[in-house]
């Protein structure tokens, strides 16, 4: 627990239900603040004295002094439904058959019925601290999360169940993020679990506390906000040499073009014109025929590239439930392409085909590299789980085209699991931005339906290729291997 | 869990991501992509099942001493409670408890002594209560979580209430003397209920 971000929260009783038997929040804050260990800011608030939160030193030390938004409701569990009926039936039978022992047994049942009717689900006043072992883990690292909940109230909690709000993008790999216990006033429960870090910014959702009365007849659900976050930003792996298409800027770079001029690769010969440099004159031909001619070389220019990642909800597919999604594969590949292209001197931007807006304009330089890494790692549009909002294709396309520089080409990372992606690729290509489709393969071949899906996807790739769009797919083999294999196939 | 076991289907599989892949190219990867550890094991915790079985065993033994038929019915009730726990079904638990109540009635009808019947009644109530509590725990926190203290407190409270109630009624019945007619006992009970409900 080298690094921890904690917050302390307490649920407050409803104003309507506050029975006034609890002491003021200040006493409690002093008590819990004094035993705060290793820098964990601990605070508690209670009894609807929300104003105290702002002024109390213990509360202001916590990251989020506010405990607003706690959602509470008390419901009857109806567990004991019918116990009174069964008890009275026994009593009645005992009277009918004149057996006093039956009446006594029925009386015990009546005792349980009374037990079920007394009591009320307590409102928990909990000081919750959550600490993580690493706030900035690398992807795949295991992060130990420790949650401590102390009963800062005056009432005992005979039945307390805590369910931590693990961020949806993180998988719990060890120990459930839940516990059930009973807490005296002042007692605390600590539970630990391990999550596997995944790319992105992950913020914990509020802890859910469920309390029941002793008999379990009434139940109250409370959410306790204890803000914790981890940021997992992967290093951009240096990718291989990514072949670009011949849409370039006027600046020098490394994309061979069909423009004759200075360069290294032979392009054409033409008649000598006055002023041509001496070293480009074809002296062999001069010796053979006596004519002066000039050798033209391919100019190598820099390109403007926009990496477009398909992050619509339909792109969050994987070959099996435990595998990484196509979006993850796309983002990883885009990261490799990003660093490779930047190293090659091209201007690179990032966009997401997603309901959320994500746009990093093409640029170059180390600041831009850092910004690109940040975008790929933590942009909400590229989050490890879908956002759930609706995607409007035509709106998105209009906005994307307005932003796209005229000389930009597009590297489109998409699993191609629906026709929308293929259509968009063709439309962007038709508008003059040369498109290369790079497609992680999420399909499997176990059943007929899956084979059909794989076939449909292959058909889309074929259609794209026949429309003159470069397409590359990679499945189990890594992205650089697939690029290297495809580069040999592609002509310029 | 069947949805999670079958790979590659565009399943909902209890994943909170609510991803509705429009084309089933693969599974929409849920947020709980678990390899070796399943947090969603919603079976009741073992300690609750064991405690419930122990209480049901005590109840069945006590009834068996008094009346074989009643004891057999309480044995059936214990099996029903076990089955309900294993299937995480409160409905099965309810039926099990109902069979147990019938067993109590039969044992009482056959003239079981009050002591045995009281032990059987408390045992049955605790057994059902703990089993039902376990099912609720399984739903809310799952089998893997730490629940021992919670179950112990719940079972202890349930046993305490039962013991107090049994001691009270047994003491009252001794105090008023065995010669009283049964109707007097029932009227006494009705008076007690009225008193309690008036005090609340």
TrEMBL record, chain A:
Residues 269-437 form the DUF58 domain. The keyword Chloroplast does not apply. Keywords: Membrane, Transmembrane, Transmembrane helix. Coiled coil: none annotated. Residues 1-73 are annotated as: Disordered. The chain crosses the membrane at residues 80-97. Residues 126-178 form the DUF11 domain. PANTHER family: BLL2464 PROTEIN (PTHR33608:SF6). This is Conserved repeat domain-containing protein. It comes from Halorubrum xinjiangense.
Automatic annotation (TrEMBL), chain B:
Residues 1-26 have a biased composition (Low complexity). It holds the Pfam family DUF7519. Residues 1-30 are annotated as: Disordered. InterPro entries: DUF7519 (IPR055941). The chain crosses the membrane at residues 47-80, 92-109, 115-131, 151-176, 182-199. Keywords: Membrane, Transmembrane, Transmembrane helix. This is Uncharacterized protein. It comes from Halorubrum xinjiangense.
